[in-house]
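To: structure desk
From: M.T.
Subject: fold request, one chain
Message: Could you run this one when you get a chance? Sequence is below, nothing fancy, just the single chain.
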Amino acid sequence: MRLKLQERQKITQMLSGRYQKARKKEKVKILDEYIELTQYNRAYASYLLNNWGKKIWVNTEKENLVYVLGKRKKKERVNRKRYYGNETLNPWKKVWIISGMICGKLLKKFIEDNLDLLRGYEEIQVDKKERAKLLKISPATIDRMLSPEKKKLELKARSSTKPGTLLKHKIPIRTFAQWDEKRPGFFEIDLVSHNGGDPRGEFIQTLDATDVYTTWTETEAVLNKAQVYVFQGIKKIRSRLSYKMLGMDSDNGGEFINDELYRYCVKEKLTFTRGRANRKNDNCYVEQKNYSIVRKTVGYYRYEGEEDLKLLNDIYEHLRLITNYFIPTMKLVKKERFGGKVTRKYDKPKTPYERVLESKHIEKEEKEMLKKVREKLNPAQLRRDMVKLQNKLFKTVQTRKRTAKAA
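Reply: Done. Structure tokens follow.
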């Protein structure tokens, strides 16, 4: 059985003095004894006994370093004063909550874009020194400082709809123009079920539509999965868009693959395609938003009836403004596989609003309209109003549960 490291070090310390003073024949005996005890390689054992307690020079590219073999001191902990104290952490928390509790890389971008806006609305009160700190902070520091808060607010349940990698193999139904993911207007659409774990009866569905190029996302709650309601939801989403919808890509559900929607796409000259059966990754962009936008906002409760429908759509009206105008996103630019390791490269965080403004395919008048809307928005007020609606929705669900249980 091999000895522990501390025991081997003690043996080395005891034998090294004798070994260094001994003659050749005696050194062989000491070395054999030492190898039997420590089970070291012979060359390494000889090196340790010869150099224990001596200064060893180590050559590096920049300089020559020296250390004493066997007498390295433990690193002393440096008790530095915290650079980011509570006076900085408290504004972080507030900005983080306003942003919808996004990750450090996206929050860094959100702070850079909206800190002065929030100060102008007197939502955040920081002096020049603290403002400089907030703008200087790195994404890694943000994640580290906010990790205790994230653990408190984690959702206990997980969605069955999770992000996937892009595998864009579609089966076209009717194509008036080829899919062009390098321009705005081509949307992936999907439904999110709000059955609360019980698929029986009727329950509300959220129609989720995401632009592949800009990541602009629109959501609309519909009464159930019937074709008529889904079709109405698609028309409402299309009417809200500030730029032209060019195409849609859906799964193989009957709520999408039907004559009514097909005829509508033929009439409006929309490219309509569908993904392969049982391949969620074909619609990866919208699948990602199903969790990051819909589930994180309204959770996993069962919603049903007109009252819940109205509350959900009121929430989504606020959510679309926050998500599209203020919350940055990152898009996958490149993915490489080296054996078992996959390396992914993402672009710089940008809001969907910024991606729309950067596009050369969007008309100047449409961009000006978006800018006017953006100038009137206060993200903190939008978040407060949305939270009130969320609380009202959750309270309605809990009341219904208690009534059903009592009955």
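Reply (cont.): Residues 157-171, 173-177 have pLDDT under 50 and may be disordered. Let me know if you need anything else for the meeting.
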